[in-house]
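Section 5: illustrative case.
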C-alpha cells in the first residue's frame, strides 16, 4: 500500500429537537434501508456503544426521551430558548481508514475511540450531558477495499450531546437587599449551542473559530494518550471522504454512461410509440362525431371526472331507434376491428352504449377533446 499521510478530523454539528430523530436512526442503526450503500447491516453488531440512551432503571430510551428526562431532573435548562433552537450537538471523530487497517483494524479502532470518547466527555462538560456515543464498524470503504483486494472498514465515532454552558443569574434591582444587587443569584446549566462554540478575536484582532481549537485538542489529546502516526486535520476536512467520493463518482459515471445509452434507445422507441399513438388518437377522434349520443350537459364535480345531471338519463324509444339505425350504418371495421383490444371501455361505448334505451353514457363533448389521454380519462369516469 502506498504510504499516505493520515489526519485526525473532528466535526461538530448542531440539530434541533425536530431533526435529531434522523441522526438517531442513523447512529443507532434503526433504519431498515440506508442511502449509504457502504453500510453492511450484518456488521451492525460490531458497532461499539460507549454510552447509550438509557433510563434510570436501564430501559432503552430515544434521544428525545433522554433529553426530556434531563430537563425534568434539572440537569439541563432550556430557559429562554426558541422553539426551533439547536438543542443537540454531535461530534464526529474520524481518521483515515488506512490508519486503522495498517494497525490491526477493529481492535485498534476500539482502543483509539475509547480514548477519543474520554476527550468527548471533556468537550461536553461532563458525561451527564452525553446522550449517545457509538463507534461505527459497519461501513465498508469501497475504494480502499478494491485497492487491497479485501474488505476494509471505515471506523469513526459519533457522540451526541447537549451543548451546555454555565449561566450566571444575577440579582436585579428588585431584590429587597441592595447589597445583593449585581451578585450571583444562581448558576444554571443553560442549553446554548452558540455560547458553547463562540467566535472570538485573539490578541491580534483576528477572528478565531472555536472549532479550530477543537481540532487542536483532538490532535494533542490523542497524542497524549500515546497514539501516533497522524497529523492534525482541518475542520471540515474531507480528504478521506473525497477519496471515497471520487471512487464512487467514477463508478457512477460508468453506470451513467450505460444508462444513457439505454435511455437514448428507450427515448427513440418512445418517440416511435408517441407518433403511432398520435395517429391512432386522430383516427379515434375522427370517429367521435359518429358516436355522439345525446346533448345533455355535464356537471363538472372535479378536475378528474364528471357527473351526469339527475333526471336526464332516460332516452325515449324514438331516439333509441334512431341511434340504433345510425349505429348499424357504421361499417363493421369501425365498430369492432378499428377499436383496439386495449381500450375495452371505448369498445363498450361504441358497440353497446348506442343501443341501450337507458343511456348511461354521454359522449356529446368528445368531439372537442384534442388528445387521446383526455379522451380515455373521460371514458374512464363514465359508467356504461
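Designed sequence:
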Amino acid at each position: 500500500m502506498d504510504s499516505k499521510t493520515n489526519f485526525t478530523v473532528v466535526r461538530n454539528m448542531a440539530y434541533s429537537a425536530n431533526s435529531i430523530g434522523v441522526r438517531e436512526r442513523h447512529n443507532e442503526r434503526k433504519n431498515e434501508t440506508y442511502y449509504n450503500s457502504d453500510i453492511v447491516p450484518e456488521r451492525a453488531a460490531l458497532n461499539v456503544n460507549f454510552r447509550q440512551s438509557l433510563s434510570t432503571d436501564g430501559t432503552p430510551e430515544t434521544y428525545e426521551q433522554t433529553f426530556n428526562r434531563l430537563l425534568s431532573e434539572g440537569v439541563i435548562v432550556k430557559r429562554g430558548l426558541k422553539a426551533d433552537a439547536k438543542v443537540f450537538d454531535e461530534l464526529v471523530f474520524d481518521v483515515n481508514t488506512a490508519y486503522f487497517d495498517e494497525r490491526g483494524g477493529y481492535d485498534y479502532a476500539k482502543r483509539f475511540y475509547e480514548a477519543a470518547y474520554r476527550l468527548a466527555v471533556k468537550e461536553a462538560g461532563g458525561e451527564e450531558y452525553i446522550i449517545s456515543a457509538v463507534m461505527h464498524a459497519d461501513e465498508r470503504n469501497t475504494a480502499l477495499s478494491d485497492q487491497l483486494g479485501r474488505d476494509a472498514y471505515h471506523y469513526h465515532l459519533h457522540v451526541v450531546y447537549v451543548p451546555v454552558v454555565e449561566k450566571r443569574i444575577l440579582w436585579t434591582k428588585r431584590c429587597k437587599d441592595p447589597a445583593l444587587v449585581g451578585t450571583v443569584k444562581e448558576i444554571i446549566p443553560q442549553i446554548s449551542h452558540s455560547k458553547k462554540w463562540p467566535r472570538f478575536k485573539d490578541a491580534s484582532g483576528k477572528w478565531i473559530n472555536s472549532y479550530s481549537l477543537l481540532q487542536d485538542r483532538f490532535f494533542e489529546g490523542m497524542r497524549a494518550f500515546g497514539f501516533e502516526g497522524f497529523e492534525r486535520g482541518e475542520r471540515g476536512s474531507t480528504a478521506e471522504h473525497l477519496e471515497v467520493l471520487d471512487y464512487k463518482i467514477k463508478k457512477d459515471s460508468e453506470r451513467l454512461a450505460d444508462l444513457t445509452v439505454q435511455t437514448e434507445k428507450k427515448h427513440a422507441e418512445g418517440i416511435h410509440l408517441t407518433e403511432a399513438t398520435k395517429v391512432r388518437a386522430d383516427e379515434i377522434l375522427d370517429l367521435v362525431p359518429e358516436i355522439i349520443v345525446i346533448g345533455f350537459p355535464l356537471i363538472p364535480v372535479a378536475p378528474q371526472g364528471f357527473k351526469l345531471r339527475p333526471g336526464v338519463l332516460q332516452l325515449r324509444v324514438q331516439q333509441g331507434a334512431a341511434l340504433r339505425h345510425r349505429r348499424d350504418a357504421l361499417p363493421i371495421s369501425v365498430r369492432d376491428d378499428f377499436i383496439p383490444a386495449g381500450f375495452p371501455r371505448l369498445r363498450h361505448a361504441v358497440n353497446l352504449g348506442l343501443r341501450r334505451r337507458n343511456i348511461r353514457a354521454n359522449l356529446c363533448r368528445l368531439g372537442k377533446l384534442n388528445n387521446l389521454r383526455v379522451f380515455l380519462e373521460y371514458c374512464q369516469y363514465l359508467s356504461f
